[in-house]
Write a structure and sequence with these properties.
heterodimer; A: about 240 residues; alpha/beta; 9 helices; globular; B: about 210 residues; mainly alpha
């Protein structure tokens, strides 16, 4: 589904990603863990071409992101993205937030888009909020709307960039529950997270990134019960 | 008192022209400024430099020089038969446009980068993201400084008395010269400017407060 080959990314002279190779299979849930500044968010953002890669290649469903003949907007619409700070559109209602992409990119009719959006809202438990504006929602509700917005494009893969890091602790659960549901429905997911409980329970595979490289990867059991490298051991020691 | 009454009809004529030049000029300036402001943020180097040079040249020279250059200089060079009122409107539009460009640029830059990323991530093009996401939010932010620019441009029109446009100051000046009285006419000219600027400020503050909610 996604193939990442020798991915390098530098900001100026600062090399943030130093050659990442990975394959993400269809319906796989991959959790990316690592310390702040390790490059894990940058890695995720590269998958959506929000960051231009310095060298290497990323292919999604067989299409190379760096190939100039690939329509990047079309490509992005197949990849849903959920941000740490939600990034909902404050001047639009919940329903409008969700339908903007389908209306403008997929050229759905208003009725189709609204119907689809309402179905998504009821899936995330917010069917009564369609006319609310983002500022009246709690963080957890905002993130669930953001997930619905990403799903409205029927993406083939969903990327989550620390989706619960900006939430009050008591609101984390409702967002993780939605994500867990999504995983159970067979969505391909790449999740950058500090929620080790989620990684352990929902993840098929865990990738530990440190200093811009994949240091260790494996099943949640392998990573959490039996870490090999010193760096992973020390990282887990600090957060668990 | 008789001079106050005497000058008033002249000033009423003058203020109408002042108002028309300002409204039309600032409106066109707003359109110019919107494009120039986005141009200042463009990745395209040519667009960026054209916008930047425009803004810097206009902000760096007095509007009096600009109107004289346009009305006498440019029209002479190109053999244009430019009437005074058109020249005034063009001058205000070009001048206000440069300031509006900076207002627009600031307004767009004030919008969180995450908004652009969210728009792009659902597949919107950069133009669609600007139109549906960034611009509506930026516009709210730039209304107060735009109102401010309107007031500044309104006062700038007084400089067009230099090319004998029959605007507010010019009318007062003419009356003063023909009656050899100076206190009352210029007092009234000032009051007439305030008749527009004070209500404008009040409306502006109301709009600001409403946007704040």
């Amino acid at each position: 589904m996604i193939t990442v080959t020798d991915l390098h990314k530098s900001f100026g002279s600062n090399e943030v990603l130093k050659g990442i190779n990975n394959k993400i299979a269809e319906k796989e849930v991959v959790c990316v863990i690592g310390a702040s500044g390790s490059g894990k968010s940058t890695f995720l953002r590269c998958l959506n071409a929000l960051e231009e890669i310095t060298s290497g290649s990323i292919t999604i469903s067989g299409e190379d992101l760096s190939n100039p003949s690939v329509d990047i907007n079309q490509m992005r619409s197949k990849v849903g993205m959920v941000f740490q700070h939600f990034n909902l559109f404050p001047h639009k209602t919940v329903l409008e937030n969700i339908t903007l992409g389908p209306l403008k990119v997929k050229k759905e009719t208003k009725d189709e888009a609204n119907e689809h959006a309402r179905a998504l809202l009821s899936k995330v438990g917010l069917e009564d909020k369609e006319n609310a504006y983002p500022k009246s929602l709690s963080g957890g509700q905002k993130q669930r709307v953001a997930i619905s917005r990403a799903l409205s494009m029927n993406p083939e893969v969903m990327l989550f960039d620390e989706p619960t890091s900006a939430l009050d602790p008591e609101l984390v659960g409702e967002v993780l529950a939605v994500m867990k549901n999504l995983a159970e429905e067979g969505m391909t997911m790449v999740v950058v997270t500090h929620e080790m409980g989620f990684a352990r329970e929902v993840g098929d595979r865990v990738i530990f990134i440190d200093e811009g490289a994949v240091v260790e990867e494996g099943t949640p059991e392998e990573i959490f019960q039996n870490p090999q490298s010193e760096r992973l051991k020390s990282f887990l020691g600090k957060i668990l | 008192m008789e001079y106050i009454i005497g000058v008033t009809p002249y000033l009423i004529k003058g203020i109408q022209l002042t108002f028309i030049i300002t409204v039309v000029g600032v409106f066109i300036g707003f359109i110019i400024g919107t494009f120039a402001g986005m141009g200042r943020l463009a990745k395209n180097k040519l667009v960026f430099w054209i916008s930047t040079i425009y803004v810097e040249v206009i902000r760096g020279t007095p509007i009096l020089v600009q109107i004289l250059f346009l009305y006498f200089g440019v029209s002479d060079l190109l053999n244009l038969d430019l009437d005074k009122i058109s020249a005034s409107i063009i001058a205000i539009a070009i001048n206000a446009g440069a300031y509006v460009a900076e207002i627009v640029r600031g307004g767009i830059q004030a919008i969180d980068k995450g908004q652009t990323e969210a728009g792009r991530s659902v597949g919107l093009t950069s133009a669609q993201t600007m139109r549906y996401i960034i611009w509506p939010q930026a516009f709210k932010q730039i209304i107060p400084p735009l109102g401010n620019q309107f007031i500044i441009s309104l006062k700038d029109t007084s400089l067009f008395s230099a090319i004998a446009v029959h605007e507010l100051l010019y009318m007062g000046k003419q009356y003063a010269a023909s009656t050899f009285t100076y206190f009352e006419p210029y007092l009234m000219v000032g009051i007439f400017y305030l008749i527009i600027t004070i209500p404008s400020s009040i409306i502006l503050r109301k709009v600001e407060r409403r946007l704040d909610v």
